[in-house]
Specification:
The complex is a heterodimer of chains A (about 110) and B (about 110).
Chain A: E1 3-5, E2 10-14, E3 19-21, E4 24-26, E5 32-38, E6 45-49, E7 60-61, E8 72-74, E9 83-90, E10 98-99, E11 103-108
Parallel strand pairs in A: 2-11
Antiparallel strand pairs in A: 1-4, 3-8, 5-6, 5-9, 7-8, 9-10, 9-11
Chain B: E1 4-7, E2 10-13, E3 19-25, E4 32-38, E5 44-51, E6 57-58, E7 67-73, E8 76-81, E9 90-97, E10 103-105, E11 109-113
Parallel strand pairs in B: 2-11
Antiparallel strand pairs in B: 1-3, 3-8, 4-5, 4-9, 5-6, 7-8, 9-10, 9-11
Classes of the chains: A mainly beta (about 110), B mainly beta (about 110).
Chain lengths: ~110, ~110
């Protein structure tokens, strides 16, 4: 069964501090992982996907198949990074993305 | 870019009435759309997967007779909440899959049942 675990409901960091949002997954096949972000009063939007291997807004995430993790990292947090972050696991065919419960990131000035 | 719209953005209705929410992919064709429900400060809960031209697949615990889904074209899916009750008040979000596994989300519809 597909499962995504985000162990932290809330993460508070000071501006300029490093950020790591944890995500672990369970999937028997070849996973496709995503991070979505939801800013206050805005729709959910894609932040990055592991196959792109890109950095968006300073965030990066590396898929670690050995540890079944896809942690989201940023070296220096900004106040505008405060939002809800969801890790998602993609299946195949018409199967929908499976979302974690989300982590609320709060960046304190 | 890939844009998904929802209409209405907010609806208030009386208990017992039915409410229809539209989800449109504006600049791409979506063979598959998904409907989610989101409670305050909680994650998205998948309600159903909607495939164009076929019956929707509902998640366990979601009443298909209460939440009617129609996916009549490659750009439109509708969710009708029938005989709405206050406990149906929630934020309903649709998403559309364009290619691969990437899903694009609508802005959501806030339903308040009095």
């Amino acid at each position: 069964a597909q499962r995504v675990t985000q162990p932290e409901k809330l993460l508070s960091v000071f501006k300029g501090a490093p950020v790591e949002l944890k995500c672990n997954y369970s999937y028997s096949g070849s996973p496709e992982l995503f991070w979505y972000v939801q800013y206050s009063r805005q729709r959910l939007q894609l932040l990055l996907r592991h196959i792109s291997r890109e950095s968006i807004k300073g965030f990066t995430a590396d898929l670690n198949k050995g540890e079944t993790s896809f942690h989201l990292k940023k070296p220096f947090a900004q106040e505008e990074d405060s939002a809800m972050y969801y890790c998602a696991l993609g299946g195949s065919g018409n199967t929908p993305l499976v979302f974690g419960k989300g982590t609320r990131l709060s960046v304190i000035a | 870019g890939a844009v998904v719209s929802q209409h209405p953005s907010r609806v208030i209705c009386k208990s017992g009435t039915s409410v229809k929410i539209e989800c449109r992919s504006l600049d791409f064709q979506a063979t598959t759309m998904f409907w989610y429900r989101q409670f305050p400060k909680q994650s998205l809960m998948l309600m159903a997967t909607s495939n164009e031209g076929s019956k929707a697949t509902y998640e366990q615990g979601v009443e298909k007779d209460k939440f009617l889904i129609n996916h009549a074209s490659l750009t439109l899916s509708t969710l009708t909440v029938t005989s709405a009750h206050p406990e149906d008040s929630s934020f309903y979000i649709c998403s559309a899959r364009r290619q691969g596994n990437e899903q694009f989300f609508g802005p959501g519809t806030r339903l308040t049942v009095l």
